[in-house]
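Entry 14. Structure prediction run on the chain below.
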Amino acid sequence: MEIVYVYVKKRSEFGKQCNFSDRQAELNIDIPANPELAKQFVERNPVDVGIQCSTSMSEHEVNTERLELETRGINHVEGGWPKDVNPLELEQTIRFRKKVEKDEKYINAVTQLGSIMEHCIKQNNAIDIYQRYFDDEDAVEVMEEAPSAKTIKVFRDPQEIKRPATHLSWHPDGNRKLAVAYSCLNFQRAPEGMSHESYIWDLENPNKPEIVLKPSSPLVTLEYNPKDSHVLLGGCYNGQIACWDTRKGSLVAELSTIEFSHRDPVYGTIWLQSKTGTECFSASTDGQVMWWDIRKMSEPTEVVILDITKKEQLENALGAMSLEFESTLRNPFYPKNFLTVGDWTARIWSEDSRESPIMWTKYHMAYLTDGAWSPVRPAVFFTTKMDGTLDIWDFVFKQCDPALSLKVCDEALFCLRVQDNGCFIACGSQLGTTTLLEVSSGLCTLQRNEKNIASSMFERETRREKLLEAKHRELRLKEKGKAAGKDDEPREEGAAPNLEELVTQAEEEFFDVIFTELKKRETEAMKSKPEQPSLEAEEEMEGEDGGEKGGGGSGEMPV
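Output returned:
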């Protein structure tokens, strides 16, 4: 219904037109106040009165269209098949498709929708003639900025008796949290009253740990479950395996029995890539590797003794200090190559060359404690040292020295862990301080053609080591043959040296490197000191001063 009202009014009824002008104020009348009239009124303060400037001259009505709602349901079967067609029967489905494809409605619907779909496809296939296509999306230009890193957060052990941070683990969902294991690894030298607690830190609150883990023995290692971020696996100093569920609190949820656990501290624990997400295994310096299922922690599911003689004797077993299971955890880009840290150097190995490493760093004056590959760059790895230094190596651009050497703290660094994006590095120190660092974009961004360069370098060094191994093997066989037939005869000049001579030569080379480094440091220290005149120079200066004061050295008086 439409309501229309037409207003009709004469022009004379609108009032006279107002002509405003600027002039001085005029007093037309002045009425003085009468105090007697004020007695007849009651004062109100405040007074709130609504005043309408114009009178209401119309009314308004709105009519909306009526909307009827209806609720309907639909019984949907797989593929929209009718009830009389079994979708599991191939013959029935083929027969029904042929019947539908012959229907005129189906042909018309496909024809109409085809034009719309063609229009959308043409829009998606529009080509920008100025855009560069078919480039490697992951690769970018080489960054010209110098490698750098800065400290973001510092997490300190809240206990009065400080303990070394022995292991770190990033939260698998978003890396918003960091689990840190604290333990004193000196045998029977732990201070009295030292706490057994380990912590889970929130990156946004470095002042107080978010969750406190309370094991029966200090934790040497601690790992998040990649499939369930609420579950953590820990290896204790007394050899037991502990499991936590953060939804249940700080106490241990599952604990292995002491009779079926390791005999030494557990230095490595790793979750297996299983369907249930409950399987894991551990390693210790007692020479055993044990497989566990956290649903039943009373005893391990399998035990392997690391006896190279294959006699499975625990007395001859070799202790394990590190542990990896997934092949991509060695080098994320080249599973055949892996990194080891020890003997004051870091070494890169290949499965094709097992007798010697294919690449290695120089010998450092400080002992190396931990190392890790970059998860985003195949040519970058990180190492920590006992002098509190973090070294970042990029062997594509520099092989002899680290690309960046950063002094993180004054005490020794014991462990490190790299975030999945490669931008953040967490380092744990001897006094329980965990430092979070952020590296520059050049160190965490894949460079152009870096994969091919690193792969060719690994292959080249592997071939070189194979040739050297074959040559050394040939020399050893010749030496054995000569030793069998000519034990008493002196060795000819130019013949291959025996094993003792090789060991002696290696020791001499090692000590030469040490002495050279010490002399280098002494020379640098002398250069840094201010120069002082030598004793001979001082005597010459005193002699010159004495000659001037005496008026000559010959004893003759001046004319």
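The longest strand covers residues 149-155.
Filed with the rest of this week's runs.
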